[in-house]
Design a protein that fits this description.
The chain is mainly β and 258 residues long. The chain has two domains: 8-135, Metal Binding Protein, Guanine Nucleotide Exchange Factor, Chain A (Beta Complex); 146-257, Metal Binding Protein, Guanine Nucleotide Exchange Factor, Chain A. The protein is built from no helices and 22 strands. It has a seven-stranded antiparallel β-sheet, with no helix packed on it. Strands 12-15-16-20-19-18-17 form a seven-stranded antiparallel β-sheet, with no helix packed on it. It has a four-stranded antiparallel β-sheet with strand order 3-2-10-11, with no helix packed on it. Strand 21 and strand 22 form a beta hairpin. The chain is elongated, with a radius of gyration of 22 Å.
Amino acid sequence: MTEMDTPTALTRRHPVPPGAFTFEPGNRHVRGTIGEQMIVDSTAPVLVWEPDQAVPGYVFPRADVRTELLAPTPAPDHGRHAGVRTWYDLELDGVTYPALAFDYGVDGLEDYVGIDWFRRAEPGVEHWYEEAEEIFRHPRDPYKRIDSLQSTRHVEVFIGGSKVSDTRVPVLLFETRLPVRYYIRREDVDFTHLRETSLSTTCPYKGDARYWSYENGDTVLENVVWAYPNPLASVTNITDYVSFYNEIVDIVVDGTPA
């Protein structure tokens, strides 16, 4: 699909109106693979925000998807997507990937195919790329920005009245629509009551995180601390720094509760 062929329905539509589908043309080369097989290869993706969903997904022109591998299937019961017209299984090398693809019954999106990705627990597309960089969890939102800045603020962290961190060299991470996160070097954190857990999460903007719980007498806070041992290139200054959930602990910045 060339720029001249782009339907008028795909003009830019942000900000997202509540309760409505929002979509707009993307301009990145997006590819998705299973093993060595290319399942999606598109330079004309469309970003879609389903009603009341902050996280976007991609749909692709049918010509850019291996539609010969798809077969219609009954709708799954997981309810991860709204407005779907038809679901499809994908069969590749004798393996069936149930309800992996779909199309929307939404004006302007009828000729595009989506791939179930965000929050999918079942096997599916194994690797996604924007241009030559691998992306994780969901597409990066073009309306979201992340800045991690070295700071000289005095940051103290308290749990149940006990101080667990005190630093004057934090990294402050500013992420659109989220609270400021205060990242603290490990030597400024008291790990006496922190227990590493098996939880691991992936952020498309920061990378893979590991977690700790706080356990001190009757006070137990699960997975309240996290770190990125090998963050993505855009936030390397938080490498192995730790951060605490502002919503759960007490954080004091320059003498004022955050």
